[in-house]
Amino acid sequence: MPVKLAALTAVLALGGCGARGAPVCDTPSTLPVPRFVSLKFGEVYARKGPGEDHRILWVWRSKGMPLEVIAETSDWRRVRGPDGVAAWAHKRGTDGRLTVMRVKPGPLSMRAAPRADARVVAYLAPNAIAALDKSEGGWRRIKASGETGWVPAAEVWGAGGPTPCRPRED
Fold first, then answer.
1. I need a labelling partner for 168 at 20 to 30 A (CA). Which of 89, 110, 123, 146 fits?
2. Which segments in the chain show pLDDT lower than 50?
Protein backbone atom coordinates (compact mmCIF):
# COMPACT_ATOMS: atom_id res chain seq x y z
CA MET A 1 0.00 0.00 0.00
CA PRO A 2 2.75 2.58 0.76
CA VAL A 3 4.25 2.11 -2.74
CA LYS A 4 0.94 2.89 -4.45
CA LEU A 5 0.46 5.97 -2.29
CA ALA A 6 3.96 7.24 -3.13
CA ALA A 7 3.35 6.79 -6.86
CA LEU A 8 0.01 8.59 -6.67
CA THR A 9 1.59 11.44 -4.73
CA ALA A 10 4.30 11.80 -7.39
CA VAL A 11 1.70 11.91 -10.17
CA LEU A 12 -0.32 14.55 -8.33
CA ALA A 13 2.77 16.62 -7.61
CA LEU A 14 3.76 16.67 -11.30
CA GLY A 15 0.26 17.18 -12.68
CA GLY A 16 0.61 20.96 -13.08
CA CYS A 17 4.04 20.90 -14.67
CA GLY A 18 5.09 21.20 -18.28
CA ALA A 19 7.57 18.96 -20.05
CA ARG A 20 10.09 17.26 -17.76
CA GLY A 21 8.72 19.06 -14.69
CA ALA A 22 9.38 22.55 -16.15
CA PRO A 23 7.03 25.42 -15.40
CA VAL A 24 4.01 25.68 -17.67
CA CYS A 25 4.50 28.52 -20.17
CA ASP A 26 1.92 30.97 -21.43
CA THR A 27 1.96 29.59 -24.99
CA PRO A 28 -0.55 27.40 -26.86
CA SER A 29 1.67 24.32 -26.29
CA THR A 30 2.56 25.37 -22.70
CA LEU A 31 6.22 25.00 -23.78
CA PRO A 32 8.79 27.81 -23.96
CA VAL A 33 9.25 29.90 -27.08
CA PRO A 34 11.90 30.02 -28.41
CA ARG A 35 12.84 26.34 -28.12
CA PHE A 36 14.38 23.68 -30.33
CA VAL A 37 12.55 20.79 -31.98
CA SER A 38 13.44 18.50 -34.87
CA LEU A 39 11.78 17.41 -38.10
CA LYS A 40 9.69 14.32 -37.46
CA PHE A 41 9.48 13.17 -41.09
CA GLY A 42 11.64 13.18 -44.21
CA GLU A 43 9.21 15.57 -45.91
CA VAL A 44 7.71 18.57 -44.10
CA TYR A 45 6.14 21.57 -45.84
CA ALA A 46 7.37 25.07 -45.00
CA ARG A 47 4.47 27.50 -45.47
CA LYS A 48 4.14 31.27 -45.70
CA GLY A 49 1.56 31.35 -42.89
CA PRO A 50 -0.05 29.15 -40.23
CA GLY A 51 -2.55 27.14 -42.24
CA GLU A 52 -2.89 24.73 -45.16
CA ASP A 53 -4.41 27.56 -47.19
CA HIS A 54 -1.04 29.36 -47.14
CA ARG A 55 1.44 28.89 -49.97
CA ILE A 56 4.14 26.21 -49.65
CA LEU A 57 7.51 27.96 -49.77
CA TRP A 58 9.68 24.83 -49.82
CA VAL A 59 9.84 21.29 -48.48
CA TRP A 60 12.29 20.24 -45.77
CA ARG A 61 13.68 16.79 -46.57
CA SER A 62 16.03 16.14 -43.66
CA LYS A 63 14.37 14.03 -40.98
CA GLY A 64 15.83 14.95 -37.59
CA MET A 65 17.06 18.40 -38.66
CA PRO A 66 16.94 20.85 -35.74
CA LEU A 67 14.52 23.77 -35.98
CA GLU A 68 14.00 26.66 -33.58
CA VAL A 69 10.38 27.42 -32.71
CA ILE A 70 10.08 31.22 -32.65
CA ALA A 71 6.26 31.53 -32.53
CA GLU A 72 3.28 29.20 -32.40
CA THR A 73 -0.46 28.78 -32.65
CA SER A 74 -2.34 25.77 -31.31
CA ASP A 75 -1.57 23.73 -34.48
CA TRP A 76 1.28 25.57 -36.23
CA ARG A 77 4.88 26.41 -35.38
CA ARG A 78 6.86 29.28 -36.88
CA VAL A 79 10.30 27.73 -37.10
CA ARG A 80 13.74 28.86 -38.16
CA GLY A 81 16.13 26.41 -39.79
CA PRO A 82 19.92 26.32 -39.58
CA ASP A 83 20.08 28.80 -42.50
CA GLY A 84 18.18 31.38 -40.42
CA VAL A 85 15.13 31.46 -42.70
CA ALA A 86 11.74 31.12 -40.98
CA ALA A 87 8.51 29.50 -42.17
CA TRP A 88 5.43 27.86 -40.67
CA ALA A 89 5.15 24.08 -40.21
CA HIS A 90 2.29 22.02 -38.79
CA LYS A 91 3.04 20.71 -35.31
CA ARG A 92 2.60 17.10 -36.50
CA GLY A 93 5.76 17.56 -38.61
CA THR A 94 7.92 18.41 -35.60
CA ASP A 95 9.27 16.28 -32.80
CA GLY A 96 10.44 17.20 -29.31
CA ARG A 97 13.63 15.15 -29.71
CA LEU A 98 16.65 17.43 -29.58
CA THR A 99 19.20 17.25 -32.36
CA VAL A 100 22.13 19.32 -33.55
CA MET A 101 23.58 19.93 -36.99
CA ARG A 102 27.12 20.70 -38.11
CA VAL A 103 26.58 23.81 -40.28
CA LYS A 104 30.20 24.95 -40.49
CA PRO A 105 32.58 23.60 -43.15
CA GLY A 106 34.95 20.81 -42.25
CA PRO A 107 34.55 17.84 -39.93
CA LEU A 108 34.16 18.39 -36.18
CA SER A 109 36.10 16.33 -33.64
CA MET A 110 33.89 14.42 -31.20
CA ARG A 111 35.81 14.01 -27.95
CA ALA A 112 35.74 11.43 -25.15
CA ALA A 113 35.19 14.14 -22.50
CA PRO A 114 34.01 17.77 -22.50
CA ARG A 115 37.52 19.16 -22.89
CA ALA A 116 39.43 20.44 -25.93
CA ASP A 117 42.38 18.18 -25.09
CA ALA A 118 40.30 14.99 -24.68
CA ARG A 119 40.85 12.04 -27.01
CA VAL A 120 39.03 12.23 -30.38
CA VAL A 121 36.54 9.35 -30.71
CA ALA A 122 34.93 10.27 -34.05
CA TYR A 123 34.24 13.13 -36.44
CA LEU A 124 30.94 14.82 -37.29
CA ALA A 125 30.79 15.63 -41.01
CA PRO A 126 29.51 18.96 -42.36
CA ASN A 127 25.68 19.04 -42.60
CA ALA A 128 25.45 15.90 -40.44
CA ILE A 129 22.65 15.64 -37.88
CA ALA A 130 23.25 14.12 -34.44
CA ALA A 131 21.05 13.41 -31.43
CA LEU A 132 21.68 15.74 -28.51
CA ASP A 133 22.28 13.56 -25.47
CA LYS A 134 23.48 15.96 -22.77
CA SER A 135 24.51 19.58 -22.19
CA GLU A 136 27.32 20.54 -19.85
CA GLY A 137 28.43 24.17 -19.86
CA GLY A 138 29.64 25.06 -23.34
CA TRP A 139 29.78 21.39 -24.40
CA ARG A 140 27.20 19.00 -25.89
CA ARG A 141 27.33 15.21 -25.82
CA ILE A 142 25.99 13.95 -29.12
CA LYS A 143 25.26 10.61 -30.77
CA ALA A 144 25.73 10.05 -34.50
CA SER A 145 26.18 6.88 -36.55
CA GLY A 146 26.64 4.76 -33.44
CA GLU A 147 29.33 7.04 -31.97
CA THR A 148 29.01 9.21 -28.86
CA GLY A 149 31.22 12.17 -28.10
CA TRP A 150 31.47 15.73 -26.83
CA VAL A 151 31.57 18.81 -29.07
CA PRO A 152 31.69 22.54 -28.31
CA ALA A 153 28.16 23.99 -28.40
CA ALA A 154 29.33 26.84 -30.64
CA GLU A 155 30.34 24.33 -33.34
CA VAL A 156 26.84 22.89 -33.90
CA TRP A 157 23.43 24.43 -34.51
CA GLY A 158 20.44 23.46 -32.39
CA ALA A 159 22.48 23.18 -29.23
CA GLY A 160 20.73 26.02 -27.43
CA GLY A 161 20.35 25.65 -23.71
CA PRO A 162 17.04 25.43 -21.90
CA THR A 163 14.76 28.39 -22.55
CA PRO A 164 13.17 29.86 -19.45
CA CYS A 165 9.50 30.74 -19.60
CA ARG A 166 7.34 33.03 -17.62
CA PRO A 167 4.72 31.40 -15.40
CA ARG A 168 1.33 30.96 -16.99
CA GLU A 169 -1.17 33.55 -15.88
CA ASP A 170 -4.45 31.82 -15.04
1. 89
2. 1-19, 168, 170
